[in-house]
Amino acid sequence: MSIYATRWILKFPSQGDVYTGCDWIEVMGQAVPAQIGTPSRSYGYESGDPYADFLPPAIPVPENDDGTTLRAMVIVRRGAEKLGQQYVQPLLIFSGREYALLSFDELYYQVCDALRGSRPQYVAEIITPEGKTRLVFDDGSTRELASKDDDWSE
């Protein structure tokens, strides 16, 4: 049985930036309900939290909880590898409270930053009179894309 509940699946640019012909991947929001590892009585975790090594701290389950309170939100690529219940390389991990306070724009930019990693951020796309497309990045570097006839591969 999984400790996660899939809350959403969205497509994001695979390298963190949207440009003509970029590849897209599915990213999943994996919610961890408040009762997972909780110190609250009668949930079966009296001997401790077995997920403390890889999730934000467990929280007490609020009285009259309708099941929507989250301990954590783990953002992963669809198909991400897991060892037991732990995702090997999650993109982001938020406490339930942090996640609840995020706007969609903030979440989008954080996911894109995580997908981009240490690569420079895309800032512009130039299409030359010859029809060639060049990407410009925030560190001043550029990269030419193959022609659209070549499947836009880089």
How does this structure look, described?
It is built from 2 helices and 9 strands. The C terminus is likely disordered. The radius of gyration is 20 Å and the shape is elongated. The chain starts with a strand and ends in a 9-residue tail after the last strand. It has a 4-stranded antiparallel sheet. It is mainly beta.
Q: What is the terminal-to-terminal distance?
A: 41 Å
H-E string: EEEEEEHHEEE
Strand content: 25-35%
The tally of beta strands, per DSSP, is 9
The low-confidence runs, each spanning 5 or more residues with pLDDT under 50, are 150-154
Class inferred from helices and paired strands: mainly beta
Helix percent reads: 10-25%
Instruction: Characterize the biggest β-sheet.
Output: 4 strands, antiparallel
Spatial strand order of the main sheet: 1-2-3-6
List keywords for this structure.
four-stranded antiparallel beta sheet, disordered C terminus, single chain, three-stranded antiparallel beta sheet, 9 strands, mainly beta, 154 residues
